[in-house]
Design brief:
single chain; alpha+beta; 4-stranded antiparallel sheet; two-stranded antiparallel sheet; 4 helices; elongated
Amino acid sequence: MRHYLAEPAIERALLAERAGVTPATLWRRLERLREAGVIRAETAVVDWPSLGYAVEVSLRFTLDKTHPRAFDEFIVAAREVPEVVAIETFLGRVDVRLNVIARDMAHYQEVYRRRILTLPHIAELEALMLISTIKDAEGLPL
């Protein structure tokens, strides 16, 4: 599990050193960025496998848009699935992508059958199982 600014004194001191400023200057700059809405939150990045979730699948959905509330109803229902860790919307052939985690393939199969396939207004569904993550950058390329 990686934490960013989870231990403020240690992380901010290191960040100040890397930025070439004092911790007090860094703190003032961070406060200005928060007030301006540039920094919206300080978060922890969770390493799901270390918590026992060994399977990650990206599900791409095309929705049946003949129903006027198809998109909204799908999103509301998808938010209720605890194993869905990300919901993204797109323009193009794919309407929505869900990232789903599971402890193992048996757990994924149960989630898929009982929770995913019951989501409303699915016209097409494609599953992509994550094999490995080559690059996962959270920061800006400074």
